[in-house]
Amino acid sequence: MSSPLMGIIPAAGSGIRARPYTYEQHKGMFEIDGKPNILRLIEIMRDDMGITEIVIVLGYMGESIQTYFGDGSALNVRLTYIDNHHLDKGWAWSVLLAKPYLGGRHGCVMLADEFYIDSNHSDLAAFDYGSYSAVCTVKKVDDPALIKKNFSVEKDGLRVIRLVITAIAAVGNIVANLALIPTYSWRAAVGSTLVAELFMAIATMGACAFFAKRERIATETSR
Asked: 66-99 as b/e, with b when 16 or more CB fall inside 10 Å?
């Protein structure tokens, strides 16, 4: 029985902020404790979320990723590759390219350069994401610098009102100690405009849930 979630890993970017290291290797293939980061994401999707079908969106140095993972059978998953020929549109465009493959399911998006330690992604799989257009994950942090370099959220109860770019102080319902973590789920039926706005962190529309990462650790590798 297939999972109600399909994995999406945007991996098209050239890793400008990680240069010169990304001149020779894709940022998602950087090894952490001897294991490429994209492999770690696949394992989280498979083991913690029950996801066995994953789309990887390729661009810069995409051939190296496809050569390494093949069809995914060695990892007991099925991998599909899509080429993003418009890297200037950002990773939100990569997410939209995967939309035709969802087949009515929700997609779980994890960025190729996000490194997680002891995360609670299994809680996201168990969450009632089917009742919402999209679900975004957050983590409580005490360092304002982490909020400043990422995003926060303005919320009403568990409903996200909007995403806040580089929030450094609490304003209204903005939660200044919540950093947005780039793991998301979204419904295939959601229109392209909504998805683009959500993943470009401009705004959210319609029903959107707020899902706390609680106290687990999530760190970001250089992009």
From this structure: eeebeebeebebebbbbebeeeeebbbbbbbbbb
